[in-house]
């Protein structure tokens, strides 16, 4: 518990440093670092361990010039997230990977000024309440479609039906074998 607190604290120091110095931090996270996302994927029927192990989320955190919201100037960050979530059709369970390619902007503050609350483009982050992993996870969970499904009919089901041996074809093959 103490270690976790320390880690979150260090992350915040890094975020503020990134924002103030307008630096960039890039990396890749696997599901081991994103347990809530893994749980959500499993709940959506993604059960293939190899596929889950291969999920990787590329992120880029970039400090932006501080911006005024009314009278208040706040440190700014942007986050980009690129991944392909291995979702499955909720009807036939064949893979339907969903690409996520998103960018978010945040102002860092304890109390968001009115002008920031009115800004639809920019979210706010309270220092002391987030880590990079939980931020990426929150955004991906919000981007996650509740249900993906083949639009018309499920291809896999049709294919399976078509692959059933046709009794006449079987007879034909037997006849050919006899010759
Ligand atoms: Zn389907």
Automatic annotation (TrEMBL):
<comment type="function">
    <text>Plays a role in synthesis, processing and/or stability of 23S rRNA.</text>
</comment>
<dbReference type="Pfam" id="PF02620">
    <property type="entry name" value="YceD"/>
</dbReference>
<dbReference type="GO" id="GO:0005829">
    <property type="term" value="C:cytosol"/>
</dbReference>
<dbReference type="InterPro" id="IPR003772">
    <property type="entry name" value="YceD"/>
</dbReference>
<comment type="similarity">
    <text>Belongs to the DUF177 domain family.</text>
</comment>
<protein>
    <recommendedName>
        <fullName>Large ribosomal RNA subunit accumulation protein YceD</fullName>
    </recommendedName>
</protein>
<keyword id="KW-0690">Ribosome biogenesis</keyword>
<dbReference type="InterPro" id="IPR039255">
    <property type="entry name" value="YceD_bac"/>
</dbReference>
<dbReference type="GO" id="GO:0042254">
    <property type="term" value="P:ribosome biogenesis"/>
</dbReference>
């Amino acid at each position: 518990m103490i270690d976790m607190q320390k880690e979150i604290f260090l992350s915040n120091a890094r975020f503020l440093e990134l924002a103030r110095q307008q630096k960039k931090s890039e990396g890749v996270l696997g599901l081991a670092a994103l347990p809530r996302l893994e749980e959500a994927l499993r709940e959506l029927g993604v059960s293939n361990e190899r596929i889950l192990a291969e999920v990787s989320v590329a992120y880029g955190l970039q400090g932006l010039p501080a911006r005024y919201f009314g009278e208040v100037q706040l440190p700014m960050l942007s986050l980009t997230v690129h991944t392909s979530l291995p979702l499955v059709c909720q009807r036939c369970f064949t893979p339907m990977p969903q690409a996520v390619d998103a960018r978010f902007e945040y102002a860092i503050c304890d109390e968001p000024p009115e002008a920031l609350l009115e800004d639809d483009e920019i979210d706010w982050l309270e220092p002391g309440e987030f880590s990079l992993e939980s931020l990426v996870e929150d955004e991906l969970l919000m981007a996650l479609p509740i249900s993906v499904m083949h639009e018309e009919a499920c291809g896999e089901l049709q294919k399976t039906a078509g692959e059933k041996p046709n009794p006449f074809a079987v007879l034909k093959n037997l006849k050919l074998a006899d010759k």
